[in-house]
Design a protein that fits this description.
mainly alpha; 5 helices
Length: 120
């Protein structure tokens, strides 16, 4: 009968930090399943904070890279496109979105009147 390996919270935290908060990569580094990492995160709220911190660090690094690429030559457009994609998908809380979603509480009536098109 095989025993399930037990990890210290610090092992999980370190793996999350080293792998940008990506659970599957942290699991690979620990030689366990992503489910194991997810269960530790659910069990220990401080690990969820570590995961968020790791992702925030990655977002900051991507943001920095993006600004560096803006100042570079045109041959860097492929890398810039990757940065833009990452910022739009992972940087929503910082405003990197193409559109904003608004949640309207139940019972509130919202009427949208699109602007009239200019007549030529």
């Amino acid at each position: 009968m095989s025993r399930t390996r037990r990890f210290k919270k610090s092992d999980i935290a370190e793996a999350l930090l080293q792998n940008n908060g990506l659970r599957s990569y942290a699991a690979k580094a620990l030689n366990c399943s992503p489910t194991t990492v997810m269960e530790y995160i659910q069990r220990y709220p401080e690990l969820e904070a570590v995961e968020e911190k790791a992702r925030a660090i990655r977002l900051e690094k991507t943001e920095n890279k993006f600004y560096t690429l803006i100042d570079q030559d045109d041959d860097k457009k492929v890398a810039m496109t990757g940065c833009i994609f990452y910022l739009k998908t992972q940087g929503r809380k910082k405003g990197y979105v193409e559109k904003h979603e608004i949640e309207i509480p139940e019972g509130i009536v919202f009427k949208y009147h699109p602007p009239e098109e200019e007549k030529l």
